[in-house]
Amino acid sequence: MRNLSRSLALPLALALAGCSMTSDSPVPAAAAAPAELMKWPALLTRDRPEPNETISYGDAATQKVDLWLPKGKGPHPTVLMVHGGCWKTEIADRRIMNWIADDLRKRGIAVWNIDYRGVDREGGGYPGTFLDAAAAADALRANAARFNLDISPLVATGHSAGGHLALWLAARPRIAADSKLRTPDPIRIDTVVSLGGLPDLELAATPPGSGCGTEVIEKLVGPATLSSRNVYADTSVPRLAPLGVRQVLVNGRQDRIIPTDYAYDYERKMRAAGDKVSVRMLDRTGHVELIAPETEAWAAAVEEIQKALRK
User: Fold this and answer.
1) Which CATH superfamily, name and number, covers 2-13+41-309?
2) pTM for the predicted model, two decimal places
3) pLDDT > 70 in the chain, percent
């Protein structure tokens, strides 16, 4: 656990400390701030639970998936999980989700917790980061029978940048045939629960941006000035609307990393396109609380996950 704490806590603190709320965020003046929001060490210095299996879907160190299996023979309802960290491997990897993955395992839900090459790794960025996420997700279908996983319905959940990727995975059938990100027969996702996500890359690239900064978006989608393609057409979720799946955004009102208006703006755009989208904006909640299993925020996410899985 100490290695995880050292490798993640400092990069997270440096990369995510600078976010400020935008001036037009719909935050009521009466919203009560907590005495103290959770900080990363409060999560990362805990004893870290371990998965049941680790499966490789490629040769790179991060092209792996951790499988969390409940007790019993199954079939096990399953959640596809995606970590955040500003799409940078240096900031976070799949292990940052271990605590909530373990919580779902204890509740009788299997978790397929994917990893991918970040924009700071060889082969990451466009299209590698996206193709990794897609391959890792599709590997769930290939392994479902082996581990007796029930993937219908399938819920995807992701935190922060992982919220974007979870929603993007659900949008894959909408990607144009001539895109480098188009792959045949993508796994079907029925519901997405985004935890403090950045689903609209165009908004996230607009100053002042989020705690991830705006420069990382160009690394993720590629520089528009050097390409004739529309860099957001196959990468930013609102450009792929309607997804045709239920989407729930769980966000913290006091989140200093992700501005609250990101969730409301996304909800407005996707509803206008015909999608079923709802926002659960929780008071006394920052960014870390969203993936800490004892919090009100995670309880709200679990409620949505169980509802979607019909448990």
Assistant:
1) Alpha/Beta hydrolase fold, catalytic domain (3.40.50.1820)
2) 0.90
3) 87
